[in-house]
Amino acid sequence: EKMPLTPNGKLDRKALPAPEGALQTGTEYAAPCTVTEAKLVQLWQEVLGLERVGIHDNFFEIGGHSLRAMTLVSRVNKEMSVSLPLRNVFFYPTVEEMAQAISELERLEYAVIPQAEARDYYPVSS
Question: For the segment 8-31, what is each residue's pLDDT rounded down to a tens digit?
Fold first, then answer.
């Protein structure tokens, strides 16, 4: 009925009530059809903290933003052994589109940067 304001006259986001009901995106839920789509749905659910993601849901309409996109790309690259560029999250914002783009990528071996051994001090670079 009335938006809570801070003493400065700005919207007091902490005083807003929690949203009610499920997130409405305007798209009907569609389950994953392929192994790639199923893996992407799982990763999206973990990155976005959602219980259910359909293959037609738009990443940015269901809570995604640039930082979560970076997290998603990192997880996809590690767990699916591909090199998915960050821009592809913006070009292919649904699971279905992203799965299609991933199917066209070359499979790569994920390489972990080795951890440096424990020392009392480390050399400094310029």
Answer: 999 998 888 876 655 556 678 899
